[in-house]
Amino acid sequence: MKKVLWIIASIMFIAGIGGGLNNLSLIFKAMEEEADQIGFQSSMILWQYTPSFSIYVTLLVGGSFLLGLAALLTQHEKRNSLMEQLVEAVKTNEVQKAEPLTDSPSDIETQTLALFQTRNEREIEEPNDEQGENERYYWKG
Prior knowledge:
Elements: H1 2-37, H2 42-49, H3 54-95, H4 107-125, H5 129-134
Helix pairs in contact: 1-2, 1-3
């Protein structure tokens, strides 16, 4: 499918360029003939032939789009092959798993844990006698 896209896109692109150049040569020939007959009015001739460029522009845009699509498919195929290789590598590495490392906690971790434990103990030990004295009662009516 990619080869077909490349071929069709190339044909469309080349046809757009060739047709556009051919149309330009026709415009210049018509301008020369008009200049000989009634005087030189190039702006009027250009306005008359401008809509005829639409098919060639469409061919160029369509060909460019198909070339981009073919390039995208090529990159997608490369990505899929790399993913397959990655999956195979992961499958082979699953068999050879390394044992998890059991490191002793570092000094910073032990200090942090001790700090949290002492802080939690302080919060539990604090008496709440002052709350009883300053407690306010509101009517819940």
